[in-house]
Write a structure and sequence with these properties.
Layout lengths: L3 E4 L3 E7 L17 E5 L1 H11 L4 E7 L3 H13 L2 E6 L6 E6 L5 E6 L10 H8 L5 E3 L8 H8 L3 E4 L11 H5 L3 E5 L7 H11 L4 E5 L5 E5 L5 E4 L2 E2 L10 H14 L8 H17 L11 H10 E2 L9 E3 L1
Parallel strand pairs: 1-4, 1-8, 2-6, 4-5, 8-9, 9-10, 10-11, 14-16
Antiparallel strand pairs: 2-3, 6-7, 11-12, 12-13, 15-16
Helix pairs in contact: 1-7, 7-8, 8-9
Length: 317
């Protein structure tokens, strides 16, 4: 049995480091060396769970192109089990601008045809061997959501910067058990959108990550939206790419291990996620370096809670 099956969501980020996230008033700007990095949410989840010691398999479409080769080499090098189908339009890509403070803006090229579907006879035998399925917000796996519901398999998804309204994303929002998204698309409406996800769907909890502002968590058991301040990273922030994926994998890893049970359960999961997200921000690239279970445990043990004199967030001691 796999602990986690991750379906969909691989790609390559071309990362361009700039001073500011704005277009200069000139024709040319010299930048640091431009890098291609294995990236996108599904890859981040799969490699993140794998680094935390969870037995993980990854399924996706990959192109027969240099980007697909880069991803295959990265997965093999990590020792992660994966199976792929040929992507008719090639491997998805993004160009990410990263400023001096580590903030990013992405130009995303999904490129998979709208009528592409993941064959159920390819996915379901792997689903039967998984304790948990993370189903990326990739349109080709939309028909798989019903199969996962019928089988009662615990599921999670990541909606990225969903605005809380766009209809095409609603099946993932309302038909999975653990819903993660960015607060970037729902500014001023975070509690409202989290409550809507639970009210209209099957989710046990919904989480909105909020960068330097921490995260917001609503569980069906508690019924209240809790805000957790960010963990102040132990080193300077250099790149926020992949921080949300790192947060979610550490959150779920802690939940899978029983950390979400009893008093303080959500606190433990949120702290683990925030520690992993902070760790990711201190490393260049999107999926180049992931926190291990030992590093996560050590980080959580060393982090002290904010007090009246230090309200900004948790800190490494």
């Amino acid at each position: 049995m796999d602990d986690v099956l991750v379906i969909g969501g691989s790609g390559v980020d071309t990362i361009v480091r700039v001073e500011r996230l704005e277009v200069p008033d000139r024709d040319l700007l010299h930048v640091e060396p431009v890098r291609d990095c294995v990236a996108h949410s599904g890859t981040g989840y799969a490699l993140g769970f794998h680094a935390l010691g969870r037995r993980t398999t990854f399924l996706d479409y990959l192109g027969d192109d240099p980007q697909g080769g880069l991803i295959r080499a990265r997965l093999r090098g990590a020792g992660l089990a994966f199976e792929t189908l040929p992507a008719p339009n090639g491997t998805p890509r993004s160009v990410n601008l990263v400023d001096a403070e580590g903030r990013r803006f992405s130009f995303y090229d999904g490129r998979h045809p709208e009528d592409l579907l993941l064959p159920t006879d390819f996915a379901l035998p792997r689903v039967e061997r998984a304790r948990h399925v993370h189903v990326s917000r990739s349109h080709f796996n939309r028909e798989l959501l019903g199969e996962l519901e019928r089988r009662g398999v615990p599921t999670s998804t990541d909606l990225h910067a969903w605005d809380g309204e766009e209809p095409a994303t609603q099946p993932w929002a309302f038909r999975t058990d653990f819903v993660f998204l960015s607060a970037a698309g729902i500014r001023g409406r975070v509690p409202e959108v989290l409550r809507m996800i639970l009210a209209k769907g099957r989710a046990r909890l919904a989480v909105a990550t909020d960068g330097a502002n921490g995260c917001h968590v609503l569980s069906r058991a508690s019924g209240e939206v809790r805000h957790y301040p960010a963990v102040v990273p132990p080193r300077p922030v250099v790149d926020s790419n992949g921080a949300g994926d790192a947060f979610a994998t550490a959150f779920l890893h802690t939940w899978f291990g029983g950390g979400g049970e009893g008093d303080g359960g959500l606190d433990r999961c949120a702290l683990a996620g925030l520690a992993a997200g902070a760790f990711a921000c201190t490393h260049h690239g999107t999926a180049e370096r992931h926190i291990t279970a030992a590093e996560l445990a050590a980080a959580v043990n060393r982090i002290r809670r904010p007090g009246p004199a230090d309200p900004a967030g948790w800190r490494w001691s």
